[in-house]
Amino acid sequence: MIRLLRLNRFPILKQLQIEEALYRTPNAGNWIIINNGTPEPIVIVGATGKADKLVNLDEVESRGIQTMKRFSGGGTVVADENTLFTSILLEFETLKQLFPTMSSSTPSLISSTSSSSSSSSSSSSTSINVSNIYPKDIMNWSANSFYKHVFHEHLDFTLQENDYAFGKQKFGGNAQSFSKHKFLHHTSFLYDFKDDHMMACLKQPDKIPEYRQNRDHLSFLCKLKDRYQSKDHIINNLLQTINNLPTSPSIKEVTLKEAEQFLLNPHPKSNQLFDYNLKNWKDIINEYNPIIKN
Predict the structure, then answer these.
(1) SS3 helix, strand, coil % of the chain, rounded to 5?
(2) C-alpha–C-alpha distance, residues 199 and 204, integer Å
(3) Residue 208's closest CA among 196, 198, 199, 220?
(4) C-alpha torsion sign, points 159, 164, 166, 167
(5) What is the spatial distance between Cα 118 and Cα 180, in angstroms, rounded to a whole number?
């Protein structure tokens, strides 16, 4: 069974707290989360990111924008009400049942990156071996077997290294976490964004994808609103793709309250906020405040 949680303008910080609880709780099951925007602008940095290297901290502080570090890897993004968030949390055994012919280190069928083509000679054609699944395999699977159906209207949809793009322009960034029995793959889709936020708040990172070719943020990114009339269209495509998953898994839509129950389980808490006064990350002292109370 896959639990489906749909949220609307739910704070991404709280969503990531829920996701960490689900990810770190044994036997939490399989989840797909869709969140239609976060109410206030926020800068999100990956787990190993250095805020001063990635974010113009003085500018972000002057705009009253929080900066947070999520528990998973990945790059940096300025998110707001026009960002569409999706998260896929699956046990490897469930993935094996859904896609029994998936192979380890499979090159992307729709990616034009040189790294994918160079790995083709070592690809395996055997059935999925849970112990041999790597982040790149999940990245390729997410593009080839899932999101290509979500964005089926556009033939230039592609996986560029670790990003979803139309041609060479990125519209979706990914972050992942892996444990022995499951993985988490979450994505921030840029339906729209304020050009000034992107240019003023984010620095050009030292390490950039090869396909970016040192382009600035606005030349590198594109907006989904230029391809779709509404986020609802994309969300409907997402729901259709979920309902059309192979082997017809049971999909159960759940409430926020049901997901919040996992916050009660003891687990490490790695999401942090940046303290502009101390110039450092700090743990989130105030416990999560459920939106729906008992």
Answers:
(1) 35, 25, 40
(2) 9
(3) 220
(4) negative
(5) 28
Task: Report d(CA 116, CA 96) in Å as an integer.
Answer: 22
Q: How far is CA 142 from CA 165, 256, 260, in A?
A: 13, 25, 26
Length of the chain counted residue by residue: 294
Percent of the chain with pLDDT over 90: 79
Overall pTM > 0.85: yes
- In this prediction, residue 126 has a pLDDT band, given cuts at 50, 70 and 90, of very low
Burial class of 54 by CB neighbour count within 10 A (0 to 12, 13 to 18, 19+): buried
Amino acid at 99: F
- AA letter at 225: K
Longest dimension (CA), the chain: 56
Measured CA to CA, the distance from residue 126 to residue 110 in angstroms comes to: 20
**What's the pLDDT tens digit per position in 6-49?**
999 999 999 999 999 999 999 999 999 999 999 999 999 999 99
Structure tokens at 220: 């590198």
Cβ-Cβ contacts under 8 Å for 153 (sequence gap 6 or more) = 227
| 88, 182 Cβ separation under 8 angstroms | no
